[in-house]
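name: query_chain
kind: protein
chains: 1
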Amino acid sequence: MKRDNKKIEMTFFSTLVDDLKESVRFLDCDKKVLYVNPFGERLTGYVPEDVLCRPCGGLDEEHTDTSGRTLCDTECPLDHVLTTGEVYNEHLFFRRKNGDVFPVMVRVLPARNTAGEMIGLVEVMSDDRPRLESEELKRDIQRIIPVDILTGLYTREKIMEFFEVKLENSRRYEAPLGVVMVVLENSDRIKKRFGDKKLEEVIQRIGYLIRMNTRRGDVSGRLGPVEFLMLLPNAKEGDTTMAAEKLKRIIGDDSGLVLPERFAVITGSSQYSPGDDMDGLIERARKNPM
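structure:
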């Protein structure tokens, strides 16, 4: 009777994943493959006869990280989940049966029984080439249009060009120039808990709030993945400090609209003095948080 229930259970799960456009494999705690869905065959090149009831490490396939290190014998994603019980989620490369290597997104989850005991693993793997092609397209667009697609702010290259011009104006005409840095706190935690998509939504929202809360003549850009730079020409020190404090408050108050919990940013400011350069002003703003 138990055997029949197991058969019904496996039939139920396989029915759920047979039509997915991702490779799905069920493995036991010895890393033996118990099931692979049809798309998994097409993506990896391995048919069920190649993999079923065989330990994953005994196959010719392999995962490598973005630096080219083979993970099977050193940092195996399956071993990570078996050891820690935590979900593994990473961009890797995979070698197919025919020897081709291509980018994949790998997610490994622990499978547990009703008592909470780990009884196996579920490995979900998707072709990452469309994402990379999309990223390449974005880079091509940004070479033509110097605006960061996600946030609507200027790209790093363009904001630094503006910085050079504004700084030269301050030197030549002795005009005030304020610099505000905005940095998202705990971005790794947000990514781990809510995923890449949610982190992008947070970054997009911060970009929007910066755009909506700058004066005419101010210039803003995305300096790094979670770092933003604002240039405030003709702003005195008090005005620059107030702008940084206001942004910190507005973003904090708004954060609950994007995530089920609040997130925060660190804002800092600096003010141009004779002899300052761009790097010095940015570094001072980073070291002068509100």
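note: Confidence is low (pLDDT under 50) at residues 1-6.
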